[in-house]
Design a protein that fits this description.
With 233 residues, the chain is α/β, with parallel strands linked by helices. It is built from seven helices and ten strands. It is globular.
Length: 233
């Protein structure tokens, strides 16, 4: 999907900046960044390590707040919400797939998905499918009882995708989801991710340094030194 100017935005960053420390020790992670995310679109955040991609994802997901500017999610400023309310907002529509899958190590693959489904249900946005069905959807019905250390990198990322689907998300944020995978496995994971997006209709935002991944997306934003360096449509 390519967004149009008539489409209501799902998420908006207006002039956001993120700074850590003070004085000579201050680090500027982002400065004056504007980004708009539209429903069901695919958007790549490109740039080398340290360009601000992960920080921008964290802002979009409400994991951190900006030092300046604002992040709007479904018409509401995330800065106006307390920590609990931001967590509720994430559980009720924003899902995250981390580079290293970030599964709970003491829970099985099925329990990881089921726990997230339970949290999403408490937030009033339960999954449209049962946890076991979601595992089957990503081809891992035979790994339901496996603990994360028993899974390959590609399998762990597929469990992470199933877990994100348990939130029935409108926005899925992925931080270098294939960064730790070999090229063949990475290609299969990306094909699956796009198939899931097509089926469930969520907006997909990926941080990546790989131009081949960015080329799959409707739009691509280039970041450098915490600033937007260009936009490709």
């Amino acid at each position: 999907m390519s967004a149009t100017t008539e489409t209501m935005p799902l998420s908006v960053c207006r002039g956001v900046g993120v700074r850590y420390g003070t004085g000579v020790a201050e680090v500027v992670a982002l400065a004056g960044v504007d980004v708009t995310i539209f429903p069901a679109e695919t958007l790549a955040l490109r740039g080398p390590s340290g360009s601000g991609k992960t920080t921008l994802l964290h802002l979009l997901g409400g994991l951190i707040l900006p030092s300046e500017g604002e992040v709007i999610w479904q018409g509401h400023s995330l800065a106006s919400l307390d920590v609990a309310a931001r967590g509720q907002a994430r559980a009720a529509g924003i899902a995250y797939v981390f580079q290293g899958s970030n599964l709970l190590p003491n829970l099985t693959a099925l329990e990881n998905v089921a726990f997230t489904a339970w949290l999403a249900s408490k937030a009033g946005r339960g999954p449209s499918m049962e946890p076991a069905e979601l595992l089957g959807l990503v081809g891992l019905e035979g790994k339901a009882d496996a603990l994360p250390p028993e899974l390959s990198g590609g399998e762990a990322q597929r469990v992470a995708m199933a877990r994100s689907l348990a939130q029935n998300p409108e926005l899925l944020l992925c931080d270098e989801p294939t960064g730790h995978l070999d090229s063949d496995t990475a290609g299969r994971v990306l094909d699956l991710l796009w198939a899931l997006r097509e089926r469930f209709g969520f907006a997909l935002v990926l941080a990546t340094h790989d131009p081949a991944v960015a080329d799959r997306c409707d739009r691509s934003i280039e970041l450098a030194d915490g600033r937007v360096n260009g936009v490709v449509r």
